[in-house]
Amino acid sequence: MTANTTAEPTARLIEVFSAIQGEGLNVGTRQIFIRFALCDLRCHFCDSVHTWHTPADCRIERSPGLRDFEIHSNPVLIPVLLEWIERQNLPCLHDSISLTGGEPLLHAGFLKEFLPQARSLTGLPIYLETGGHRPEQLAMILPYLDSVGMDLKLPSVSGESYWSEHMKFLQICYPNLETFIKIIISHHTDVAELEQAALLVADISPDIPVFLQPVTPLADSEQLNKIPILAPTPAQVLTWQALMKKSLKQVRVIPQTHKMLNQL
Ligand code: SF4
C-alpha cells in the first residue's frame, strides 16, 4: 500500500469572530473576521503585535458577536475552519468575510484551497486586508477575492519602504477587484511621502479611493522601540487631504471607528 504523502493545507490562526468593520470602504458593515497569525512587517504603530508569531491556540467565537470564545489548537485544517464559518453565518447577518492579520497573504497556499469552498458555502463576498507588499501571493488567490483594502506603508510612519511592491500589487488589483487604499498618518508623517503615495495611486487610477487614517495613539507599554506615536493635528490632516486631492478623486479621512466602538 502506498502512503499518502500529500499534506493537507493548514493555517495558523489568531481568532475567528463577528464584528463591525471599522476602517476603509466597508466601514460599518458586519463581517466574519478570520485573523491569521504571522506578519513579516514590523510597523511602529502596530496594534496587533500578538499576530507576529504563531500561538499554540486560537480562539473561536461560538455565537456571532457574543464573544463566547472557545479555544482550539493550531494549525487548523480547512474543513474545521469551514465549520466555524458556517456556524457564524446566520441568515442575513453578515455582509462579507474579512481576511485579516497579521498578513493573510503569508497563508496564500491555504487560502487558494479554502476560499472557493468558503464562498460556495456562505455566498458571502471575500475581503482581503493586507500590507500590499506581496504581489505574487495576491496573484495566487485573485480569482477568489471580491475586494482588497491595501495598507500603503509610508516609510516615515511604518519604518518600512515598499513603493515598488505596492505598485505591482495595485496593478494586479485594479480594476480586477474593488480596491481601496488605507494610509496611516501620524504627527510625524513626511509630506513628501504622502505626495509620492498619491502619485503612485493616481498612476494606476485617480479613481481608487484613498482613506487617510489618523493613527490611534498607543499606551506607553504598547509602543515598539519606545517611539511615541502621536496623532496628527487637525491642521495637518486638512492640509494633507487637500494635497492628495490634487491628484486623486477620493481622499477621505476616517479614524479607526472600531476602536471608538470599543470593538476587537
Ligand atoms: S502589517 Fe499590520 S500586523 Fe504587520 S506589523 Fe504592520 S500593522 Fe502590524
Descriptive labels:
264 residues; alpha/beta; TIM Barrel; 10-stranded mixed beta sheet; two-stranded antiparallel sheet; 8 helices; 12 strands; 29% helix; globular; binds iron/sulfur cluster
What does this structure look like?
This protein has helices at 78-88, 108-122, 135-141, 155-158, 163-173, 191-204, 234-244, 257-260, and strands spanning 10-11, 13-20, 30-36, 57-61, 69-73, 76-77, 96-100, 126-130, 147-151, 178-185, 210-214, 251-253. It has 264 residues and is of the alpha/beta class. The protein has one domain (10-260): Aldolase class I (TIM Barrel). It binds iron/sulfur cluster. Iron/sulfur cluster is lined by residues 39, 41-43, 46, 48, 51, 101-103, 131.
Q: What gross morphology would you assign?
A: globular
* SSE order, one letter for each helix or strand: EEEEEEHEHEHEHHEHEHEH
Helix content: 25-40%
**How many DSSP E strands?**
12
Count of helical segments? Answer: 8
Strand order of the largest sheet: 5-4-2-3-7-8-9-10-11-12
First-residue to last-residue Cα separation: 49 Å
**Overall CATH class:** Alpha Beta
Strand content: 15-25%
